[in-house]
TrEMBL record:
<dbReference type="InterPro" id="IPR029063">
    <property type="entry name" value="SAM-dependent_MTases_sf"/>
</dbReference>
<comment type="similarity">
    <text>Belongs to the spermidine/spermine synthase family.</text>
</comment>
<dbReference type="GO" id="GO:0004766">
    <property type="term" value="F:spermidine synthase activity"/>
</dbReference>
<dbReference type="InterPro" id="IPR037163">
    <property type="entry name" value="Spermidine_synt_N_sf"/>
</dbReference>
<keyword id="KW-0808">Transferase</keyword>
<dbReference type="InterPro" id="IPR030374">
    <property type="entry name" value="PABS"/>
</dbReference>
<protein>
    <recommendedName>
        <fullName>PABS domain-containing protein</fullName>
    </recommendedName>
</protein>
<dbReference type="InterPro" id="IPR035246">
    <property type="entry name" value="Spermidine_synt_N"/>
</dbReference>
<dbReference type="InterPro" id="IPR030373">
    <property type="entry name" value="PABS_CS"/>
</dbReference>
<dbReference type="Pfam" id="PF01564">
    <property type="entry name" value="Spermine_synth"/>
</dbReference>
<dbReference type="GO" id="GO:0008295">
    <property type="term" value="P:spermidine biosynthetic process"/>
</dbReference>
<keyword id="KW-0620">Polyamine biosynthesis</keyword>
<feature type="domain" description="PABS">
    <location>
        <begin position="110"/>
        <end position="345"/>
    </location>
</feature>
<dbReference type="Pfam" id="PF17284">
    <property type="entry name" value="Spermine_synt_N"/>
</dbReference>
<dbReference type="GO" id="GO:0005829">
    <property type="term" value="C:cytosol"/>
</dbReference>
<feature type="active site" description="Proton acceptor">
    <location>
        <position position="265"/>
    </location>
</feature>
<dbReference type="InterPro" id="IPR001045">
    <property type="entry name" value="Spermi_synthase"/>
</dbReference>
Length: 394
């Protein structure tokens, strides 16, 4: 659903002996219009704060109609008390008007988005914000999309960067092409998660694939991606794609021995994605794979999460014939790296480390990151990571 255009109204600051009464600027929809300034899209927090100074307002209240959700909450508040001369600004901490849970806008301060995650304490990733494009809470998570100054549009779920237009191809290409080129003839592919559509875009490059099924539990991710991440979401345009908005585990229970390749493009193992990192989910994927099939899942960061990766690898090794770990580099993910757990149902002479098919020269030109050489190199781990994940005997 498109955001409905509307206008902002300004209540001028009135002289009063009651300093607790504050003037308010209300912003509704995706358009802002005053006598002095006009923006086509919602201004960045820095611009909004600047406008407050110009108009000498005390508070910005936003009301964004998006999809079926409607949010009304203070974004910025002048000062911390009743002093009308206090010109400092801070993010509002009023939570009663916002559904419980993390509020992504609280991570936008002074015109910058600051990512601080529970899984990478002690470090942060910051991107300068040009415009806030969308923000609301779906039934599952907080969804924020903003335009950055040098990374294009950015999708953030529960405060964690999922996609930036500048570097998304590294992740999308590797998580898709590693399992697909390791399979001799993939015809039916399942994607769990991946609502932004980037993995679909890459799978669609394989002519052997006859059917692509995606199970994304949160329709909100699909909606914002189609609107604000069109270069990724064009993956939905392929006629081979079938979309199911539902729990992927339930879908696999109903579709066993059905897929040649299963790709789990999930967020981190907290919140709604936590079940995707547990042994029962890997068992469900195994049952849904055809003999000789391959799964490839988001495998966290070898610099930060070997305590998550190693027990998971050990656990699924009891079910899958071969389990391997590959990785790629991507600047806007924690520590600039993300890994993939690649597992096969049935013996493979070289596992999944060596591609059994190669992209044509013309197809290779459409890829910005993946290559046959990089496919093999992705499985070469630093010594510390190899020992930490697979032990000294590997």
């Amino acid at each position: 659903m498109q955001c409905r255009p509307s206008f902002c109204t300004i209540e001028p600051k009135k002289k009063t002996t009651q300093p607790s009464k504050r003037s308010v600027m209300r912003i509704s929809g995706s358009h802002i219009l005053t006598q002095k300034w006009h923006y086509n899209k919602i201004s960045s927090p820095l611009l909004i704060a600047s406008s407050l100074l110009f108009h000498q307002l005390d508070c910005v209240v936003s009301s964004f109609p998006f999809a079926s959700h409607h949010i009304t909450r203070p974004l910025f508040v002048r000062g911390g008390g009743d002093n009308p001369n206090d010109s400092t600004f801070k993010m509002s901490n009023q939570e009663e008007e916002f559904p419980q849970g993390l509020n992504g806008m609280d991570l936008v301060k002074d015109g910058w988005f600051h990512e601080r995650g529970e899984l990478w304490k002690g470090q942060a990733m910051s991107l300068e914000v040009k415009n806030i494009l969308a923000h609301y809470r779906s039934d599952y998570q907080d969804i924020l999309v903003f335009e950055s100054t040098n990374h294009g549009n950015v999708l953030v779920l529960d405060g964690v960067i999922q996609v930036t237009e500048r570097d998304e191809f590294s992740y999308q290409e590797m998580i898709a092409h590693i399992p697909l080129y390791a399979h001799p003839n993939p015809k039916k592919v399942l994607v769990i998660g991946g609502g932004d559509g980037g993995v679909l875009r890459e799978i669609a490059k394989h002519e052997s694939v006859e059917e692509i099924v995606i199970c994304e539990i949160d329709k909100g991710v699909i909606d914002v991606s189609k609107k604000y991440l069109p270069t990724l979401a064009k993956g939905y345009d392929d006629p081979r794609v079938t979309v199911h908005v539902m729990d992927g585990a339930k879908f696999m229970e109903e579709n066993q021995d059905s897929f040649d390749v299963i790709i789990t493009d999930s967020s981190d193992p907290i919140g709604p994605a936590s079940v995707l990192f547990e042994t029962p989910f890997y068992n469900a994927m195994h049952a849904s794979l055809r003999e000789g099939g391959i799964v490839c899942t988001q495998g966290e960061c070898l610099w930060l999460h070997v305590d998550i990766i190693r027990p998971l690898v050990n656990s699924i090794s009891t079910k899958y014939t071969q389990v391997e770990y590959a990785y790629t580099t991507i600047p806007t993910y924690p520590s600039g790296q993300i890994g993939f757990i690649v597992a096969s149902k049935g013996e493979r002479e070289a596992g999944c480390k060596v591609p059994v098919r190669k992209p044509s020269k013309e197809l290779q030109k459409t890829m910005k990151y993946y290559s046959t050489e990089l496919h093999a190199a992705a499985f070469v781990l630093p010594a510390f990571a190899k020992r930490a994940i697979f032990g000294d005997d590997e």
